[in-house]
Q: What sequence folds into this?
């Protein structure tokens, strides 16, 4: 009887031990975060400013890394994440604060993003100044008015503002030329996915990707063969050297600095040729780096906000309080 009990005990013992070990391993796993983070969490931290959130720690040559893989050599310190500079021209209109709010809500989720907001105005407005002060983003607030003669339908918009952003970048980086950075032009009414920033961050010279809802089509995109841009899928002026919207490319800071004369021009520039005229000065089609899975994914949309109906705004019996909208 005793020996039967003993043999049963020894048969069960390894199983009991296995169950105990499994339970222990499971409880050692960290609890999942309350709010799920996007799958590309290294990029999903806020930047400097009021709403500062520390960057998630990247793999450092610490004790834990060594414990997990002792045969691996010590990790080299990673190079700093290139800063993304977003140049946004903006102008006063009823929807301005709403547009800027949407944009800031996106940008706040991108690590190392510096927002260069350029007002189309003779002076910095109080609305935008107050907005930026509370936005919780590293930013630079510039202004330059568009000359009256250029404020006509059919003429390119925001030429002067984009150039002011470029001038600021060049001046700011005059001394420290080796800082890694990427510039892109972020109009205030477009819609940007967070993945887009992940893609553009690795721009070496000039990178390109598809843009949704533009050119009279669901999307426009660079055509890619063997990793190179060989043409353009577009429904509008296919003869453009770079048949791409302003939202469809990014440029490395190095390229901006080494081409100090590259700017947007009004003289000789036909409508819709702003992008081509600018890109011609800094790159060639062969040199372009296709992003977004060889330009097969739409990560940015050229959305346009409907003009608001203010037909019932009172002229005389206005509200008793003054409210900024
Ligand atoms: N913009 C500007 N001044 C203007 C018109 C537009 O600064 O007089 C800005 C606008 O806020 C946006 C960019 O220029 O960031 C492009 O303008 P819009 O979105 O009207 O152009 P579209 O998308 O129609 O090409
Ligand atoms: Mn627009």
A:
């Amino acid at each position: 009887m005793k020996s039967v009990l003993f043999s049963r005990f020894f048969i069960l013992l390894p199983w009991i031990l296995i169950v105990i070990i499994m339970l222990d391993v499971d409880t050692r796993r960290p609890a999942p975060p309350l709010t799920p983070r996007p799958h590309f969490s290294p990029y999903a931290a806020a930047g400097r400013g009021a709403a500062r959130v520390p960057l998630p720690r990247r793999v450092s040559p610490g004790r834990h890394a060594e414990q997990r893989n002792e045969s691996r050599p010590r990790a080299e310190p990673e190079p700093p994440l290139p800063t993304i500079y977003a140049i946004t021209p903006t102008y006063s209109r009823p929807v301005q604060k709403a547009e800027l709010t949407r944009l800031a809500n996106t940008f706040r989720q991108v690590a190392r993003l510096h927002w260069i907001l350029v007002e189309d105005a003779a002076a910095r407005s109080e609305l935008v100044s107050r907005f930026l002060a509370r936005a919780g983003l590293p930013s630079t607030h510039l202004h330059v008015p568009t000359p009256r003669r250029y404020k006509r339908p059919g003429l390119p918009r925001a030429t002067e503002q984009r150039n002011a952003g470029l001038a600021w970048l060049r001046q700011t980086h005059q001394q420290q030329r080796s800082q890694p950075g990427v510039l892109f032009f972020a109009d205030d009414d477009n819609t940007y996915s967070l993945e887009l920033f992940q893609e553009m961050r690795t721009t070496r010279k000039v990178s390109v990707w598809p843009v949704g809802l533009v050119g009279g089509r669901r999307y426009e995109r660079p055509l890619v063969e063997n990793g190179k841009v060989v043409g353009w899928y577009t429904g509008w002026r296919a003869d453009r050297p770079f048949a791409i919207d302003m939202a469809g490319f990014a440029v490395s800071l190095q390229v901006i600095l080494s081409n100090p004369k590259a700017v947007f021009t009004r003289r000789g520039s036909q409508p819709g040729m702003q992008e081509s005229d600018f890109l011609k000065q800094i790159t060639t089609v062969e040199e372009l780096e296709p992003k977004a899975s060889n330009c097969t994914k739409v990560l940015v949309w050229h959305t346009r906000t409907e003009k608001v109906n203010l037909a019932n705004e009172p002229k005389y019996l206005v509200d008793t309080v003054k409210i900024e909208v």
Observations:
- Residues 26-70 have pLDDT under 50 and may be disordered.
- The longest strand covers residues 217-225.
- Residues 4 and 10 are 10 Å apart (CA to CA).
